[in-house]
């Protein structure tokens, strides 16, 4: 099919959809809700955000343009028993019939929203236009008028201790909080004079003070104990606001209620119960009578039928609640977080029992836990597609969640892979084999010698030791990589969505037992020296990652950030200088007669998802990376260099087929040369829900890689400010995704728009869209960003 036929076919398909009657199943006297608009004079709240308060929305539009699902529904016949009609209606979406009751409810919802924000005199009205046959357009008109503002705000908390906590000032130089006593927070009231009379902000202020109090012993305190009194009699649109403290109310056994001042609670006893099974406990059976008791420090540990499945010292170190200390909600949260890191346990629940001793309120704390399955096996099968070369891979996995009875997680994997190589560019390749294994152990604590226990508890980090071996066999060479690592992983205390990873030691030993002589001779000398020779990579690194994306909030605005830095070879280079080692003919030091790399590498990736509505989302990604070899290396090792193209990059190219720069490709160009030291990725994607689990995406990708230096074997591959913007490749495409919430499968296609590898007018590949040279497709798991 030639280009004009493609265009005619597309136009015919669009005309077929448009010609479908969208009111086929709209009865007489009913109206299809065709459009909904919001007209507001308040610029602080966008209409797209206010649509969430409407009780009725029109039929869904794919990419915000076409009511595709409504058209599919209308394709069905009126006989609902026919299989084809059932399927069309299941895939499609029934017409949304305008309901005036829901319109009035939407008006009330919008009024309630603006009143809560301080616009007490807001006016909301709706007009309905039914001039079009069987179609209705609803417009909501919002006139917010002048809002109410807070003239004077005071807080009158009759309890001096509570009042001092609510107005606590932060010290100039806050000290690191101890494990059991957090550092004081600064007084940052959310209510300011002249601010809007925003009820949401008032609730946040109550919650802020409640959190401060519950971190300082006030276990029974809740935000309902704080109330506001507003006086608007002085002037129009002005409110004098006062916060009051209600006394503690306790209901006695006879039903009477007594009021008393709020009291602080102290922890009395702390007990950890393992093997807790609420289903298996009868009404007359106590969890205390079914267990063995061990006292470790000030903590009681009760074991069940599984015996001492986890060491009592490990449980004690995970508890941040101690007898005699004030109750603190922060310590409770720390205890939850610490027990969550013990993968040998599950279903953690912390319960408190109140009691009064000599006019002092105390709490007995019981931490209930259940053991999880300690061991498990798994087999993974997967299909692979690298640059159009198909293959398969399989792995056998073993997991032990409590190796030394300290909730240490030991995992091991054996993996094998095969890929049939297409032999492009005259390389004559036949197949690719890979065989490898890895083993790791994760300690749920900070492991390092000569450090105090109190310091380790403050860090609350996990420690991972890992070793792996991988052997790759290609017709040109055999490569073996032996790796080892020592890393620390922890979450940000102030934000559980932030994660830190510090690689204290990261070692890779690359060994080439075999390399084809003709292949090696065809490589430039520098490429053969740095990419196809034995070498050590010894370094350290740090990665910070943040993401607020969860399956539950996928319909909201989300963003993620990843920043990483890696340093390699500095320690070995210092040792070489100290020991007075001599350089080889290439001017490089060696370790045990083997070259070692020295470089610095940094990456930053930022992604953001903007929810347009419940079924449409706009996402973009910016990724920048740069690596600089120095000292003992003039080029980065192949394993640390960047590549471009593929399912998570510029999708108009297959993996490792783009760049560097505008380096021209020939039949003899090796994939080893299509690597660089600088990367740029720019992605914009429009995601829209279709039906069931299916999702569609339209996207534009841009980016490339460059070398940090001008290498003679990678001509025009280096980064140059005078021309780099001309070397940014561009592609576009469509993707189909299958979203199962816990994982996502996607099939993405890409068509080249601008190809910097070509010359002259051929660079604009969009003028000749063909599926032979300018098209790529990708199968992957998960979103690209």
Can you describe what's shown?
This protein is an alpha+beta fold. It has 13 helices and 31 strands. Among the domains are: 18-59 and 95-143, Ubiquitin-like (UB roll) (Roll), CATH 3.10.20.310; 149-260, no CATH class; 265-371, Ubiquitin-like (UB roll) (Roll). The strands form five sheets. It has an 18-stranded mixed beta sheet that branches. The protein has a five-stranded mixed beta sheet with strand order 10-11-9-13-12. Keywords: Cell outer membrane, Membrane, Signal, Transmembrane.
Short recap of the structure:
Residues 509-767 form the Bacterial surface antigen (D15) domain. This protein is α+β, with helices and mostly antiparallel strands.
List the helices and strands and how they pair.
Layout: H1 3-19, E1 32-40, H2 47-50, H3 68-75, H4 83-91, H5 100-116, E2 123-129, E3 135-143, E4 149-156, H6 160-166, H7 199-214, E5 226-231, E6 238-245, E7 248-251, E8 257-260, E9 265-273, E10 292-296, E11 299-303, H8 312-317, H9 329-340, E12 345-357, E13 360-371, E14 375-386, E15 389-400, E16 409-420, E17 431-443, H10 453-459, E18 462-473, E19 477-491, E20 498-515, H11 517-522, H12 525-531, E21 535-547, E22 558-568, H13 570-578, E23 590-591, E24 594-596, E25 599-613, E26 616-629, E27 678-689, E28 694-706, E29 729-739, E30 744-754, E31 775-781
Parallel strand pairs: 1-3, 4-6, 9-11, 9-13, 21-24
Antiparallel strand pairs: 2-3, 5-6, 7-8, 10-11, 12-13, 14-15, 15-16, 16-17, 17-18, 18-19, 19-20, 20-21, 21-22, 22-25, 23-24, 25-26, 26-27, 27-28, 28-29, 29-30, 30-31
Helix pairs in contact: 3-4
